[in-house]
Amino acid sequence: MKRSVLLAVASLAVAVSAAACGGANGAQSSPSATTDPGAPRIVAADLKFGPAPSVTAGTAFGLVFENRDGAPHNVAIASDGGFSSVVFRGDVVTGSTVTYQVPALAAGTYWFRCDVHPDMTGTLVAG
Amino acid sequence: MQGSESRLTPAGVALRAIIVGLTLVTGYIHSTLGGPLFSLNAVGYAVAALAMIVPLGIAIRYRGVVRLGLIAYAATTIVGWALMGPRYPTAYLAKADELLLIAVLAVDFVRADGNPLAYVRSVVGDALAFVGLRPAAAGSRA
């Protein structure tokens, strides 16, 4: 019994120190944020995306992505709702704002989602 | 009895500490991801970590089942990520942690419980005896 209690204490001590040293955000690079106030913007908050912007077709653009959650999110854009044709995939960021450089999109409707939380979705129109 | 904790050695204690540490680290990572699926996954890891160390008779007797269950749980998490998870540094860190966890659990299982097939046969026999489908064998865990 004594040995079991010692085992429990030793295990918890190792676990707590390991968890304290290895935060989930520590290994993740966070791109620097340079935001143009007029740039199209997508906001993630409470595990949902806010209203989607309209973008200009045929021109590469900077897409401001503001992640207000403590959870990691990104924006992946696809030309179909099943996300079999992803045209852009942004880096995952946590609690910060970044500007993605999105290649030119042909006119039409696109779907976007968070790769970490695939139930976070939205649509954007290039026109 | 196979798997008895009365035979714990310093190496066994160290292995167990590593297992609990790795389990709690991946559980913590999943707890930071938000959403019910990741939260439940984190709770599962926390419960498994507790089951690896709790000094209760039934947990001690069936620690091998916990080891096998945790191996299956971590493997399922890895497969789920491989099929539909995002590729980014924290995810790779969590998967590396889980792969290492599986390896250490396998070593710990062989040290403590011996042949996995023989162990599973023995536990299934105990379960059948418990529900009255087979007479309890001598030296049974149940």
Topology record:
The complex is a heterodimer of chains A (127) and B (142).
Chain A: H1 2-21, E1 41-45, E2 48-49, E3 54-55, E4 61-67, E5 72-73, E6 76-78, E7 86-89, E8 93-94, E9 97-102, E10 108-113, E11 121-126
Parallel strand pairs in A: 1-4, 3-11
Antiparallel strand pairs in A: 1-2, 4-9, 5-8, 6-7, 6-10, 10-11
Chain B: H1 10-31, H2 36-53, H3 57-61, H4 63-84, H5 89-113, H6 116-130
Helix pairs in contact in B: 1-2, 1-5, 2-4, 4-5
What does this structure look like?
The complex is a heterodimer of chains A (127) and B (142). In chain A, 28% of the residues are buried. In chain A, a hairpin with a 7-residue loop joins strand 10 and strand 11. With 127 residues, chain A is of the alpha+beta class. By secondary structure, chain B is an all-alpha fold. Helices cover 75% and strands 0% of the residues of chain B. In chain B, helix 4 packs antiparallel against helix 5. The model of chain B has no long low-confidence stretch (mean pLDDT 89). Chains A and B meet through helix 1 of A and helix 1, helix 2 and helix 5 of B.
Brief summary of the model shown:
The complex is a heterodimer of chains A (127) and B (142). Chain A is α+β, with helices and mostly antiparallel strands and 127 residues long.
